[in-house]
Amino acid sequence: MYSAGPVAVGTDRAIGKLTVDGDIYTTGKLITPSDIRLKENITEREAREALDNLCKLRIVDYFYKPEVAEKWGLTEEQRKRTGVIAQELAAVLPDAVKDIGDYLTVNESRVFYETVLATQELCRLTGDLDQKIDDKVEEISQRLAKYAARKKMLSSMASNLDSKDKKSIVSQSHLSLISSVSQYKEKRRSRRASSQQQQGLCGSRWAQGTIILLVGIMAFCLLTMSGLYVLDWHNRNYGYHHVYHGSQSAEPPANMVLSPNRGVPHWQPDAPPVMPNCVSLQCKNYCCPDGEEEPDSEEFNGENSFEPVSRSTFTKREFGTGVSIQLPEYKMDIDSRYCVEKSCNKKLRVFNLFIPISKYYPNLPLEVLIKTPHTKSVSNCGYVSYFANKQCSDRKKSTMDDTIYPASSQIMENLFELDVGDYIQSAYRFRVSYIAEACFAHESNGGTYEEYNLFFYRQCNTNNNSTTF
Predict the structure, then answer these.
(1) How many domains is the chain built from?
(2) 62 in any annotated domain
(3) What GO MF terms are annotated (predicted)?
(4) Per-residue DSSP letters for 25-53?
(5) Does residue 392 fall inside a structural domain?
(6) Within a domain: residue 201?
(7) Of 158, 186, 219, which residue constitutes the final position of a domain?
(8) Are the C-beta atoms of residues 224 and 417 closer than 8 Å to each other?
(9) Distance in angstroms (rounded) separating the CA atoms of residues 46 and 53
(10) Does any domain span residue 246?
(11) Last residue within a domain, chosen from 132, 158, 184
């Protein structure tokens, strides 16, 4: 052992310790035994605790006092050091600090191994975070691939419609119109003949008395109908009992506007259905219990294709709330034409919309776009629990679990994907409000939200050539 510069080496008899002032240089080996054969009571340290301790340490730059530097023979450059304060370290790691009488010393090897433990904990946390990121990226990739495949399938189906099929549909519509005119003329002739016979009967007094009695009955019925209409108008505009806007789990009232079995309306002449026509040689029947059907006309040929809905016959009618609902894949507007009797009430802010779907619509999800004013947002509240949601029989057999509840998910802003294709009938709830969590609100009468319930149902008994939109 030798020293360059002033070095004081001696033994402090008061504390029995060897003290060295200055720098120490060695040409031999400094041996620190660490063999397991020399150790006992070996226990592992908690890495998370080491990370917490490391966060509590304060690393500082400091200068030794001039009198200390002069005593130890330190230059001005050697006065500046980087490290910890012994008193602060003692509060975190007491066993890393030792009191030798005049001052406290730091066991730097103890601090080093605490840092190693903290680094191991950071590596573990980073690995877990990487795994979670990889899983999320994989999930998003699968959803995008599924979305792209469905888009490709719908585009291929729409492109198969050629000009010959269009001409065939126009010709059938012309023949249907001629047939309707002929039937109307025949009915008119029969009415004229019946009217002439009735005029012969009016010649007798008995017939005249009967007519007077019938007129009185008709007048009474007219007055009764007028009173009922006034009551109905009052209930429709000021009553609250006929529109259901309860919670998701509650049962609907008995007088709600639905069929007695909580089904769907039997006839909606002004509401165009989704994918109403099939114009292929073999028209596959999805979901409906009939199986597959073929059209009677021999002029159809080619692969499966579907006629898009033409909106020239139907006039769009807004809700009057600034909200619009669209089916972007079919360029359709879901507006007040889909309201049935009292199912839509602007004053109560509840809109129950019944949307028919043809039996030619495949077992695919349906995209719904809900546009709102810029100050409001739409909330996806899931399926309508009180509605009789019914799965297609073939889809129900292929399902792993026994659930029959339809699902709705948000794929973009204001764009949602509904499990319509797998159900004979299904219902979904959306709420538009100034707040983000409108699904947990209780009342719509105070203006908290507007509720839009979409009821989809299959038209299984509609002939594929009977109606053209």
Answers:
(1) 2
(2) yes
(3) DNA-binding transcription factor activity; sequence-specific DNA binding
(4) B-SS-------GGG--S--PPPHHHHHHH
(5) yes
(6) no
(7) 158
(8) no
(9) 11
(10) no
(11) 158
What's at 245, amino acid-wise?
A: H
Tokens of 231: 């009551």
C-alpha span between 287 and 153 (Å, rounded):
19
Please report, for the domain that includes residue 115, its CATH number: 1.10.10
Q: Are residues 149 and 284 in the same domain?
A: no
Q: Are residues 151 and 282 in the same domain?
A: no
Average pLDDT over every residue of 238-264: 41
Q: What are phi and psi of 427, to 5 degrees?
A: -135, 145
Show the domain range for 132. 1-28+43-158
| Chain length of the chain | 469
Ramachandran angles phi, psi of 211, nearest 5°: -65, -40
Helix axes 47-56, 108-159, angle to 10 degrees: 110
Q: Distance (Å, rounded) from C-alpha 335 to C-alpha 319? A: 6
Q: Which two tokens stand for residue 115?
A: 């840092």
Q: Residue 108: what pLDDT?
A: 86
Q: Quick one: 423 exposed, middle or buried, by C-beta within 10 A (0-12, 13-18, 19+)? A: buried
- At 160 the pLDDT is 61
Q: Are 78 and 59 in contact (CB under 8 A)?
A: no
Q: For residue 433, what are the β-bridge partners? A: 377, 449
According to DSSP, residue 396 is labeled H
Tell me how far apart the alpha carbons of residues 358 and 421 are, in angstroms, rounded to a whole number.
Answer: 10
Is residue 282 pLDDT above 70, yes or no? no
98: tokens are 């030792």
* Contacts for 293 with CB less than 8 Å, ≥ 6 apart: 283, 285, 464
What span, in angstroms and rounded, lies between the C-alpha atoms of 467 and 173?
8
Task: Provide the token pair at 438.
Answer: 């409108």
* Element containing residue 150 per DSSP (H, E): helix 108-159
Pair 313, 454 in one domain:
yes
